[in-house]
Write a structure and sequence with these properties.
With 270 residues, the protein is α+β, with helices and mostly antiparallel strands. The chain has five helices and 14 strands.
């Protein structure tokens, strides 16, 4: 039995998500559907990219991931399906998939041009999630070969979402906040493995945040830096919101200062 995941910025107060599931059921009512999230902020491609990238490895081979954060719906942006070694991605070609594609190579890529696998040959200009992406994903999960969904495209032409890269410095790394979760935890773009075997602190402007292993390593209401379950260095506040307490947003520059564990907590911030 096939498996389809859904990630959107549609929220839960309207019928959009339910209608997408309805079009999937019309193709194959026996498919399993898992909601990754529908609470991506409207048109927030960076958040959608991050969430899909971090969810992708936890699903079995063959899973079809339908993701719709689509501010360009109805425009000339392409509707695509991608085959990777572990599964499929279906959605708009607007950079939403670029986080996954940074880690997993594309085996096959098509533009969804075959209306036989749409909900209707005359899709709405404002709801491709219902009329194109959900039914195409359902057909894939039901065993339809990806080549039947449309013409092949060059993976090198897929849109990449511009995300600032972290850089190495003489004292550690410089990066930025790439995501803020609902707890107000600020996730950086610096991989946690870079801090393995080291003491580290995060410097933001004139604020220095010491590191720990768990949220409770900080006093209630105090900030702490740690490697989150997603594998990235993050900034949190024990019992509170780092985003609110530190007044930081996605894109803010962060500096990580490292020292070997044998050097104790003596971390230079110059």
């Amino acid at each position: 039995m096939g498996l389809v995941t859904l990630l959107t910025d549609f929220g839960q107060s309207d019928v959009y998500v339910g209608v997408m599931k309805g079009t999937i059921a019309q193709v194959n009512p026996h498919l399993n559907i898992i909601d990754l999230t529908h609470d991506i902020s409207p048109q927030d491609l960076a958040a959608g990219r991050f969430c899909l990238m971090n969810a992708y490895p936890y699903f079995p081979t063959g899973t079809v991931h339908v993701a719709v954060v689509d501010p360009g719906v109805g425009s000339q942006r392409r509707a695509i399906a991608l085959q990777l070694d572990r599964g499929f991605l279906v959605g708009p070609d607007n950079g939403l998939f670029s986080g996954v594609l940074d880690r997993y190579p594309v085996i096959a890529a098509v533009e969804l041009t075959n209306p036989e696998y749409w909900h209707t040959p005359e899709p709405s200009a404002t709801f491709h999630g219902r009329d194109i992406f959900a039914p195409a994903g359902a057909h894939l999960a039901s065993g339809v070969p990806i080549a039947q969904l449309g013409g092949a495209i060059d993976p090198a032409t897929l849109v990449q979402l511009p995300i600032d890269a972290w850089t190495q410095t003489s004292e550690g790394m410089v990066g930025c906040i790439q995501y803020c979760d609902r707890f107000g935890n600020l996730v950086t773009n610096i991989p946690g493995y870079l801090t393995k075997g080291k003491n580290f602190a995060v410097a933001i402007d004139n604020t220095t945040i010491k590191s720990g292993y768990t949220y409770s390593d900080a006093l209630p209401g105090s900030a702490i830096a740690l490697v989150g379950s997603h594998g990235w260095v993050e900034i949190a506040v024990n019992g509170g919101s780092a985003a609110t307490n530190l007044d930081l947003k996605v894109g803010a520059v962060v500096k990580i200062i490292c020292s070997d564990l044998g050097q104790g907590n003596a971390l230079s911030l110059q």
